[in-house]
C-alpha cells in the first residue's frame, strides 16, 4: 500500500466532489498531470507551495488504486514524485484532512507515515 497526498484549496475539492472527479489545480493543468506527494515529501511541498494559504485540505489516496495513469517521476533533487496523468475519481479519495496554518504560516499536515 502506497498512500499519496494532494494539497489543495477546500473549494477546489468541493467542486471536484460535485463533479465526481478532480481534474487538477492550475499548476496541474499547466503541467499536464496532477501533482502528488508521499507522506515524507508533503511537508516540504506544503512549505514551498502553500505557505500563507488558508482553507486548504489534503486528500489521501491509495496510489495503487490509480493504476498505470500514476507515474513516479524525478522532481526536487531527483526524488521520485507521484504524478497522475488523468483525472482523479472522487471515489478514490480515502480521507480528506484539514491543513490549518501553523504559527510559521506553513500548513500543518497530519498524515499517515
Automatic annotation (TrEMBL):
Top-level lineage group: Bacteria
Pfam families in the cross-refs: DUF952
Coiled-coil region list: none
SUPFAM superfamilies on file: ADP-ribosylation
InterPro entries, per the entry: DUF952
Gene3D superfamilies according to UniProt: Protein of unknown function DUF952
Name of this protein: DUF952 domain-containing protein
Organism per entry: Phenylobacterium parvum
Amino acid at each position: 500500500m502506497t498512500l499519496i497526498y494532494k494539497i489543495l484549496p477546500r473549494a477546489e475539492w468541493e467542486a471536484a466532489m460535485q463533479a465526481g472527479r478532480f481534474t487538477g489545480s492550475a499548476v496541474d493543468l499547466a503541467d499536464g498531470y496532477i501533482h502528488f506527494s508521499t507522506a515524507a515529501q508533503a511537508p516540504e511541498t506544503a512549505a514551498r507551495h502553500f505557505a500563507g494559504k488558508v482553507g486548504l485540505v489534503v486528500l489521501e489516496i491509495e496510489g495503487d488504486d490509480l493504476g498505470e495513469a500514476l507515474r513516479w517521476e524525478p522532481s526536487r533533487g531527483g526524488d521520485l514524485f507521484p504524478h497522475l496523468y488523468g483525472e482523479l475519481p472522487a471515489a478514490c479519495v480515502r480521507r480528506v484532512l484539514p491543513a490549518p496554518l501553523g504559527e510559521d504560516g506553513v500548513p500543518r499536515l497530519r498524515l499517515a507515515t
